[in-house]
Amino acid sequence: MSRLVTENLTVRFGGHVAVNGVSCSFEPGTLTAIVGPNGAGKTTYFNLISGQLPASAGTVHLGDRDLSRLPASGRTRAGLGRAFQLTNLFPRLTVLENVRLAVQAARDGAHRRGLNLWSVWSDHAALRERADAILADIALKDKEHELVANLPHGDQRKLEVAMLMALEPQVFMFDEPTAGMNAAEAPVILDLIRRLKADRTKTILLVEHKMDVVRELADRIIVLHNGTLVADGDPATVIASPIVQEAYLGVAKEAA
Ligand SMILES: Nc1ncnc2c1ncn2[C@@H]1O[C@H](COP(=O)(O)OP(=O)(O)OP(=O)(O)O)[C@@H](O)[C@H]1O
Description:
Layout: E1 4-13, E2 16-26, E3 31-35, H1 42-50, E4 57-62, E5 65-66, H2 72-78, E6 80-82, H3 95-112, H4 118-121, H5 124-137, H6 153-167, E7 171-175, H7 186-198, E8 203-207, H8 211-217, E9 220-225, E10 228-233, H9 235-240, H10 242-248, H11 251-255
Parallel strand pairs: 3-8, 3-9, 6-7, 7-8
Antiparallel strand pairs: 1-2, 1-4, 4-5, 9-10
Helix pairs in contact: 3-5, 3-6, 5-6
Bound molecules: adenosine-5'-triphosphate (ATP).
């Protein structure tokens, strides 16, 4: 198990510094919520970690490995997993085919890392079993033969999380995972995150605006404001801090 560390991570867009020298480490077995006002740099910070965006300065390490120069695909293989808003899905394939592809990719990845999983994964039935278990977890078993293109938006978002689970990353990055979901769909995703957290081996990063979700799930909260890390600590302390009350929740302003 390896800790994820960003050091001095920075990106500039022209004159605008969207993420400004963020140094932070994330321990396996903990869920860190990343909060901050709109435009604070949360998604951009994710993009820098996952390699979607090249950094202007700074580094990203997972354990001993320096990921800073790797493209997004290389970082995924190294163990960084991110649920993307639908871009990882194959719309012309069925739900089951999508998940099986991700399970297969995880198997291939395991070979590249030299792990001795061949005996397990070479078993076709085991592959199917794993895909079935994931689909049951995500409450999509009854739609396994549907084409992804025909699924409602909420189910597509759920499938996206299923694909991420299938890849079995060390680090799970969720960017507003329940955004746009209805009241029946959101609890399925939150329950999955809860279970991932209960496993106590995964590093989980969660960008989330809903403070009730953050309060319940986070072991730790970091706050970004204008691209800068302005608070970091246990949820109760961070939520009560003047910077969050004022800059994020607007409580102090409203009270004034
Ligand atoms: N590719 C880009 N080119 C130029 N500016 C960008 C780019 N990506 C992000 N920005 C700017 O960087 C800043 C941070 O944006 P970001 O989307 O990371 O904020 P956020 O905290 O995720 O906001 P939200 O909560 O609204 O999703 C914003 O001012 C945004 O306009």
